Structure formats: structure tokens, C-alpha cells
Amino acid sequence: MISAKNFKKLSFLVYGLGATGQSIVNFFKKNKIKNYKVWDDKNKHFYKKLRPKNLEKALSETDYIVLSPGVSLKKSKKRKELNKYKEKIITDIDLIFLLKKSFKSIVVTGTNGKSTTCKILEHVLKKNKYKTLLGGNIGTPILSLNVKKNNFLIIEASSFQLAHSKFISPDYAILLNISNDHIEWHGNIRNYINSKLKIFSNQTKNQYSILNLNLKKHLKKKLITKVIIPKMEDFQKLKGKINNPYLTSEINDENMMFVLSVSKLLRIKEKSFIKSLKSFIGLPHRYEIFLKKGNCTFINDSKATSFQASKCALKNGKNIFWIVGGLPKKNDKFKINNVRKNIIRSYIIGKNTNFFKKQLKNKVSFFISKNIKNSIIKILNDIKLFKRKKNTILLSPASASFDQYLNFEERGNSFKKLCKYYAKKYV
Predict the structure, then answer these.
(1) What is the DSSP string of 13-44?
(2) Pairing relation of β-strands 208-211 and 172-175?
(3) Residue 346's Cα: distance from chain center in Å?
(4) Helix or strand (DSSP H, E) at 135
(5) Segments forming the whole domain that contains residue 316
(6) The pTM is what?
(7) Which stretches of the chain drop beneath a pLDDT of 70?
(8) Cα gap 164→179, rounded to integer Å
(9) Please, are residues 10 and 36 in contact by the beta-carbon 8 Å criterion?
């Protein structure tokens, strides 16, 4: 570990000046680190005095390049220069560990469930009197948090951040799951898996590695840490005692299995654990039951950007009218046999209709609705024809949103607004 004294002698170049890049600059100012430059491919005027005249010269002379997670080494205008000095690249999460003070850390990664798991952990810890902070990929840049001695720092880490991480060393490293995702960014599934596994790379023997049993096969070498394999049966024993429908739905079983494991390590009593969960409110766009009207339940699962994520929602419901579509993930395959009995009909949106037709053909009934508005109108008319007592209208697109929306939040909010409007007219 680099000492605080030596840390201030190092030189840095901050590459990318979005929210994370700006938080890095503010962090340097706060910690009186003076030897740094900044660069952004698009914005040439932001922090103009700190911008080097010759980027390659600056990259060659600096000790570390602090790369913002949105910058791709494949798509950046200066990708040739960045790849040349790839070994120098670190992330904002690395900085918090390089200058580590006396705080405890939980770092959570995985393909699905990261944000929800982080929020449940934050809620449980706060309810049990831990001084807890949450940041990273979930929204607040980690360096924007005012981390103090004896704080418990929960970090959601994306594969983009971990791919370039060199110093991350969590007290509790959690790897939830791995499925096909972000292959365009990483190049192949092996690179994606390796980025996730870096969460364990720098841990010491007194720290904890918490992962699913089926993920141990991906480890290249035996971990020196205290390895914890959460057991689903442990959570199932408690599930009936938890008075919170959101947390006891099958969709959250895996998340809760990990939260329970951490709470046990922190010696939170079972009674306190159960009591703290009663007041937890789920995150928007993650299997969000936002409207019940007549014989219809409306669920916004816009965050489901791969089939594996949508599969959880499809397993958890009956009589589902499923809105699916958008920009599919590379190499994603719809293994739908185990959930097809729950689906009445699917409604394909977005510009990639041929991909989804191919995935669903001869498996479930589908209708090409092109957009969410048409889907809702068609579903509400179909419900009248099917005449079932209970119906689930589910937006779980199994794909990214960028063909029609800025992000999954905009897609989910549009769905909720349209459902509330048309439910008044049709239900």
C-alpha cells in the first residue's frame, strides 16, 4: 500500500470529466494533491489551465492515469495513446483505497442485483447503528462522499471500473452472479469475468470473499481470504418472518442471501435483522409494482437489460403480458422454457424486432407493437378478450434502452406514466 506521504508525491492525469472525473479533481484539491492534469475528449475548456498541450507527453510522464468509467479504450478518440499506457490506468475507487483511512468497506459487483443488494445492505447497517455511506456505480461518485474514520463504506462496482482497478481491497468483497453482459465493451466473456474477479485480487487473509458456489470455478487460484459461500436455505428459514412483500418475492432471494451472510459476519442479531427489513422500500425500475387497478397489476422492471435479468421477473409472476425489446446484449440467448407457462403473450418494442421474433418464435405468442404506448393499449384490449381474473402487465425489456430512450430510467418512467393514463380509460 502506498503511504499517504508518498501518495502526494505521485503525478496523475484525470481522463474524462463527467461527474466521476470532477469528483476526482475535487478529491485532489481537498487532499492537497497538486501534481495532476486533466483531459476530456469532448470538453476542451473545462479546467482549461490543467489541460496538457501534448497529451501523449503527459501520459508518458505521469505516474497514474485515473480513467472515468464511461471512457472506453476501444471508442475514445485517443484510444491509441491510452492503450499504449494501459498499465498506468487506475480508477476513482483505487484512489480511496490508496489513501485508505480507518474505514471498513463492502464492495458489491455482479451482473444483476448490485444496486438492490447495496441499498438493502445500507438500510440494514444504518438501522443497526452503523455509520454507513453508499456510492460508486449506484449514483454518487465514491470520492464525493465524506468518508471518515470508523465509517462503513458500501461501494457498487461496475465491470468497467473493476477492469482497470489495481488497488481495490475490500474488507467484504461480494460477487453476486455472472451472466452474459457488456461483451461489446470487454471484447469477450472471459475479459468480462476477469474484471469481476478483480474484486478479490488484493484482499488479505483477514478479509472476506463472498460469492456463489457456482462462481468458484472461474477463480484462477485459491483465495487467501476467508471465503464465504451463502446458502439459500439459510435465508429461506427466515423468509417467512420478514414482513416486506418486496423482499420476500422470489426475485430478491439471491440478493437477500448475500445480505444475510454479511449481517451474520457483522454479528447483527437475527431479530434486529428481521425488524430492520420491514421499512425497506425497493428501488425504482427494479420489479417495481407501482399500480394495481381492477384485475391488473402493473410492474416496471425497466432495469432488466438482459434476458437473465428478465427471467427473474418472469419466474415471479403468473398470467404475464410481457413488454420486451430494445437493444439486445451481444450473444444474449432467451432460454425461456422454464418460464413460458407464466407468459400469456409478449409485445415487442424497439428497432430490433427481428432479433426478438427469432428468440420468441414457437415459444410464446408475440405481437410487434414497436413502442410502449402501443403495447399498453394492445395489452389492455387483449386482457378483455382473455377474461382472466388476475393479470400482470410487465415491462422487463431484456435489453438496453438506447434505441428509443436515453436510459432505463426514462424508459421506466414513460411506461409508468402511460400505464396510469390508459388504465383509467380501459380498466
Answers:
(1) EEE--SHHHHHHHHHHHHTT---EEEE-SS-S
(2) parallel
(3) 26
(4) strand 132-136
(5) 288-426
(6) 0.92
(7) 1-5, 180-186
(8) 20
(9) no
